[in-house]
């Protein structure tokens, strides 16, 4: 070993700085690539889910189409059955007759009901007339003894309005007086 030479070789700083920059750039780019790969994996997962949903929707649509075809076939049968029913109803003739004996029995029963109704109505009118006479006698006895009074509908309304307005005026005056 010589005395004037250093033990270590000289360090190339520029080369080291370039190498560090390259390592940093590689790290940043690899992080970006990793992030992009994760995004692509998430998109692939979403695409698979969408594909499964689409397959399920397609199966449901096929089932609905089959049900619609079945319903269409059955509706044709229903229309035919309904036409047959309508034709049967239109072509069926009903023959109705009332025998003379039944007619006489109906007339006899109607007259009996009318006679009974007439008797019941006479009794009702008699009871009403008796009730009216009793009421008139009671009113005339009350009036003859000078007990009670009679006021027409118009004067009763006027009296009520006068009493109501006087009461309200009294309350307002009392309220104003106690307030001061």
Fold and architecture overview:
This protein has 3 helices and no strands. The chain has helices at 13-91, 100-144, 153-179.
Key features?
180 residues; mainly alpha
Topology:
Layout: H1 13-91, H2 100-144, H3 153-179
Radius of gyration: 56 Å
Q: Biggest β-sheet, characterized?
A: none
Which residue ranges are poorly predicted, with pLDDT under 50 across at least 5 consecutive positions?
A: none
- Secondary-structure-based class equals mainly alpha
Query: Counting H and I runs of at least 4 residues, what is the number of helices?
Result: 3
Span between termini: 123 Å
Give the helix level as a range of percent. over 70%
Quick summary:
The protein has 180 residues and is mostly helical.
């Amino acid at each position: 070993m010589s005395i004037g030479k250093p033990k270590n070789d000289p360090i190339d700083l520029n080369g080291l700085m370039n190498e560090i920059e390259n390592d940093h750039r590689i790290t940043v780019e690899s992080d970006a690539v990793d992030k992009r790969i994760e995004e692509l994996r998430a998109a692939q997962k979403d695409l698979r889910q969408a594909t499964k949903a689409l397959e399920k929707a397609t199966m449901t649509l096929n089932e609905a189409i089959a049900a619609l075809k079945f319903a269409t076939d059955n509706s044709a049968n229903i229309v035919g059955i309904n036409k047959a029913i309508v034709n049967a109803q239109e072509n069926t003739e009903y023959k109705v007759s009332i025998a003379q004996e039944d007619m006489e029995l109906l007339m006899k029963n109607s007259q009996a009901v009318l006679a009974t109704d007439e008797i019941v109505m006479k009794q009702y009118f008699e009871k009403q007339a008796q009730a009216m006479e009793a009421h008139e006698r009671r009113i005339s006895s009350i009036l003859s003894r000078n007990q009670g009074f009679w006021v027409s509908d118009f004067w009763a309304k006027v009296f009520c309005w006068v009493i109501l307005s006087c009461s309200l005026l009294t309350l307002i005056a009392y309220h104003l007086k106690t307030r001061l």
